[in-house]
Amino acid sequence: MPAPAARPTRAHLRLLQDLTEAIGVSGAEGPVRAIVRKQVEPHADTVKVDALGNLLVNRRGAGRVRLRVMVSAHMDEVGMMVVSVSSEGLLKFEAVGSIDDRQLLGKPVWVGADRLPGFIGAKPIHLMGEDETGQTVKVESMSIDIGSGSKTAAEAKVKPGDRATFATRFRRLGPSVMAKALDDRLGVATLIELVQNPPDGIELLAAFTVQEEVGLRGARAAAFSLDPQAALALDCTPANDLPSWDGEENIAYNTRLGNGPAIYAADGRSLAHPGLLEHFIHTAESQGLPFQIRQPGGGATDAGVIHVARSGIPSLSLSTPARYPHSAAGIASLSDWRDTARLAHAALSTLTERTLRRS
Amino acid sequence: MADVMLTLLKDLIRLPGLSGHERPAQERIQAAWEPLVDELSLSPIGSLHALKHGSGESPRPSVLVATHMDAIGMMVSVLDHGLLRVAEIGGLEPRVLPGQPVTVHGRRDLPGLLIQPPAHAIPPDDRKGPVAVKYLMVDVGLPPRQVERLVRPGDLVSFAQEPFEQGEDRLVGHSLDNRASVAALTACLVELQQRSHHWDLWAVATAQEEETLGGALTSAFALRPSVAVAVDVTWARAPGLPEHRTFPLGEGPTNAWGPNIHPGVHKALKEAAERVEVPLALEPLPAHSGTDAFALQIAGEGIPTGVLGIPLLNMHTPVEAVSIADIRRTGRLLAEFVAGLPADFLQTLTLD
Predict the structure, then answer these.
(1) CA-based nearest distance A234→chain B, Å
(2) CATH number of this structure's domain B76-159
(3) Superfamily of the domain at B4-71+174-348
(4) How many Cα atoms occupy the beta-carbon half-sphere of B98 within 13 Å?
(5) Which is catalytic among the residues A212, A213, A248, A278?
(6) Domains along the sequence of chain A with CATH
(7) Residues of chain A by 3-state class (helix, strand, coil), percent to 5
(8) What is the reported pTM?
(9) Quick check: is B320 catalytic?
(10) Tens-digit pLDDT profile for residues B132-184
(11) Could B315 and A149 be called an inter-chain contact, meaning their C-beta atoms sit closer than 8 Å?
(12) Do B319 and A107 make contact, defined as CB atoms within 8 angstroms?
């Protein structure tokens, strides 16, 4: 099949918009799953949803199948869960997944399946004590206001357990995009494209996973049931490439925006399979595709659990970098995303059993 | 009939118009006021003056109603590897800033995002708690060379949060401080189309309230009204805020009381509210009212001044929230106050 397009099409942008504006907080990925299903169903050999909510798709590429390869991308995003309704009709909430408390105050949110517009209330600066602005407001003392005015009115619309996300609209910024949940709807969009346009010679076992942000939970069950010979986790990793306050070179950038897809050598939960790592680097170099090695360190992708599923599965992670993940809005480079799809497609098309051998 | 007030307000909270650069807001207000007043002009500092003639014999006394139209925001201070560091215009709460959408008014308008840099890019002492405005940055998603072509220090950065509604009565967005009051004054002008008033009315959308009060001070000097009223937002009640300094959203405006306020104007506002059955809470302001009144009162030889407040949640954030009913009530109260001013009102304003 032809290589994925180097430049984003209108359909690509539309899909990114739909995916990033959908609400799919860990454990409640339904709206994202519905979008994915619609996109992949006409192209898939089989589609099923497992007990956790993973959407598992089989798609055979052209030619003789050399390998069965699992490619995962997580559908869930970090967000919030309503835990109680106060007597004033305000919603107390907790974070689902890791969100810095400092990202929450004064942000618009969408609450529940009906996407009720709300905001996380903030104290006016005029009414603060002298050292108050120096203190971080903890999530425990925040609440979401949906304009209800009373407990009864609020409870008619929202109940404890409902999920909420930042209310952020997708936006194009020249060569970049700004959106919530780029982690990992970028990966989901890439994987949709792989199902629609599968690499030759492999049986693609596409796993649109759940609950990555709360402990890589969906991928573990998916890897067991798909039983692949190799796995690729498509994710989104922070580009911490901002200039330092003191003009010193930033050497803890993790990845840099615009420098191409990030290949993992190691993260906090897995070490890349050496053959796969070499194969992806070689593919990028021989195809003239930009790439970068993500700085080894903490963090995790679905590969953290896939590589230790069953009796061990050779695994690699490949991410599109994005700035400011796990906040109201991130920024990613469209060319990094397109090159991620191109690199994944090219590398999977030439993957053989030999790549996976441990010598 | 189209709701002139609400249409104007919804437009205004999509527009920039930072202190000192109010033109986008001013042009929109001017378009709304043009059919409602007899004369329009701009002050050298950028305030919009609208005169609606009274029916009394010339020379007539005049009342000035001041609503500031400027908004808080930021200004680019330095370009750093394609990212922008910013300085404040007006008082910002740094803790609500990370993750807010903004517009950078460079050689062309650029959408951008106000962000908190990763920990290692800020000084060690600032990593744990809230990050100071000087370490926050704006990312416009463009390559550094393009940013350098399009942006320079001094360019304005305005909040770009899209307004939204909650139910029938609540409007949420940036710059409702103080465009909610501009809307209330507009509702007053609309109502006065059907009523006669003895006094001249100067409807003024003031500039630079958030920085220097320079608009109100200079407009009051130039127009020398007999009486002035500043309309501004006040703090709406919310958990964690002191009850004695806050007022429930949706339960009517406030009538301020304190050294910036002339007792006679205060009383006349109170009586006007009673006549039209607008609930009006007493708002004690023991010192600086924090509004244009601070400047109006001491313009020229001094002007008897009153202050009305419209309760507002999340003041000085991009999610300020206001009750539309409170704005309508304030407009109705203003119209009644203006129309009800007797020819000899000034003579009743004596202090013992």
Answers:
(1) 23
(2) 2.40.30.40
(3) Zn peptidases (3.40.630.10)
(4) 26
(5) A212
(6) 10-69+180-356 (3.40.630.10), 79-166 (2.40.30.40)
(7) 30, 25, 45
(8) 0.94
(9) no
(10) 999 999 999 999 999 999 999 999 999 999 999 999 999 999 999 999 999 99
(11) no
(12) yes
